[in-house]
Design brief:
Elements (H helix, E strand, L loop, with lengths): L3 E3 L4 H11 L1 E11 L4 E11 L3 H4 L6 E5 L12 E5 L4 H9 L19 H31 L1
Antiparallel strand pairs: 1-4, 2-3, 4-5
Length: 147
């Protein structure tokens, strides 16, 4: 129930996901140099673990998420930012072995023009006619059972 997996999303969805993933304490160091002195300052700040800007710029194959655990199956790393690595050579080899999908029904006239709409309308008229021809017989049966 608490599992979330997401690819690229923008706006409120990205913001909501970022808030759900939480924040992490970041240490920042800055160095100031002037003619007489060098000063270093170190401070800490809470930043989003996965910022909304990062979620809204995920590329193909990249995703973020969070998983929930059970009492008997604890998961240490619940939040993740990952990438699916595709072996393109293997996919290409697999695609070469694909067979074309067989044509079950073709909706082309003899001249090659599409007649799908006409076929659907003819089927609709046939079903409607079948219903109209069945109604009188069923109607009289229904009247007989009510008497």
């Amino acid at each position: 129930v608490g599992n979330v997996f997401s690819g690229q999303v923008v706006g409120e969805t990205a913001k909501t996901l970022s808030e759900r993933f939480g924040k992490v304490l970041q240490k920042r160091q800055s160095v100031s140099i002037n003619r007489q002195d060098v000063s270093t300052s170190i401070n800490t700040q809470m930043d989003s673990l996965i910022p909304a800007s990062k979620i809204s710029n995920l590329t193909q194959g990249m995703f973020v998420g969070a998983v929930s655990d059970n009492f008997d199956e604890r998961i240490e790393q619940k939040i993740f930012h990952a990438e699916i690595v595709v072996d393109t050579a293997k996919v290409s080899a697999e695609m070469k072995s694909y067979r074309p999908i067989p044509v079950i029904a073709e909706f082309l006239n003899g001249d090659g023009s599409d007649n799908l709409r006409e076929t659907i309308e003819a089927s609709y008229r046939m079903v409607k006619q079948d219903i109209l021809s069945l109604l009188p017989a069923r109607w009289s049966e229904l009247r007989m059972t009510q008497i």
